[in-house]
């Protein structure tokens, strides 16, 4: 989709007019600075752009010219896209001394209402509620805040999400996006 067309349409729609007008003018700034042409500025139906799906205001705040070619090119340059994503996460308080979270199992008859990103408990508190690692072992005895999330419902995958997961959610409020980025971070961190 043309980013400018998508943003103009959404601004005209009226439901989030102020937000999308701001994004539209931020997109014009990107073009004016020479990072991309209007014809090549492609994105989602909602205006998220490039390989990392930045909104234009996020681009203006966090995009990086990692390959030093004079352009912040999150559409065609893998180096710029990944460096921009890393910069965004760093600014969103990503702490690389911790992981994003872990897959866990619930005890039978667990009350699924005791979950969600707004509810935070320490690992020992989750342990006391019967939460175990995916392998069925005890959680680490570390005072680390976590939230129990169920992106696929209580019969799907269950995770204890740490603060790094919340950093990803600042980027995009979709659990599917956040868990995909989280698993990608694991693949990068633990590759041979």
Textual characterization of the structure:
The chain has 192 residues and is α+β, with helices and mostly antiparallel strands. Helices cover 41% and strands 9% of the residues. The chain has 7 helices and 5 strands. It has helices at 3-13, 17-32, 56-62, 78-91, 123-128, 163-171, 175-189, and strands spanning 101-105, 121-122, 132-133, 145-149, 158-161. The protein has a 5-stranded antiparallel β-sheet with strand order 2-4-5-1-3. Strand 4 (145-149) and strand 5 form a beta hairpin. Helix 1 (3-13) packs antiparallel against helix 2 (17-32) and helix 2 packs across helix 3. The radius of gyration is 19 Å and the shape is elongated.
Structure keywords:
192 residues; Helicase, Ruva Protein, domain 3; 2 domains; five-stranded antiparallel β-sheet; 41% helix
């Amino acid at each position: 989709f043309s980013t400018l067309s998508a943003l103009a349409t959404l601004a005209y729609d009226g439901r989030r007019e102020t937000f999308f007008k701001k994004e539209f003018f931020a997109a014009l700034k990107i073009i004016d600075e020479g990072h991309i042409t209007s014809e090549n500025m492609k994105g989602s139906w909602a205006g998220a752009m490039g390989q990392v799906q930045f909104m234009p205001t996020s681009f203006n705040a966090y995009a990086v010219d990692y390959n030093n070619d004079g352009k912040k090119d999150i559409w065609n340059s893998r180096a710029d896209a990944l460096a921009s994503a890393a910069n965004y996460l760093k600014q969103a308080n990503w702490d690389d001394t911790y992981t994003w979270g872990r897959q866990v199992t619930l005890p039978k008859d667990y009350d699924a209402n005791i979950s969600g990103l707004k509810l935070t408990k320490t690992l020992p508190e989750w342990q006391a509620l019967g939460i175990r690692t995916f392998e069925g072992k005890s959680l680490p005895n570390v005072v680390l805040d976590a939230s129990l999330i169920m992106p696929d419902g209580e019969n799907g995958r269950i995770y204890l999400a740490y603060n790094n997961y919340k950093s990803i959610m600042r980027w995009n409020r979709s659990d599917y996006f956040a868990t995909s980025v989280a698993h990608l971070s694991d693949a990068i961190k633990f590759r041979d």
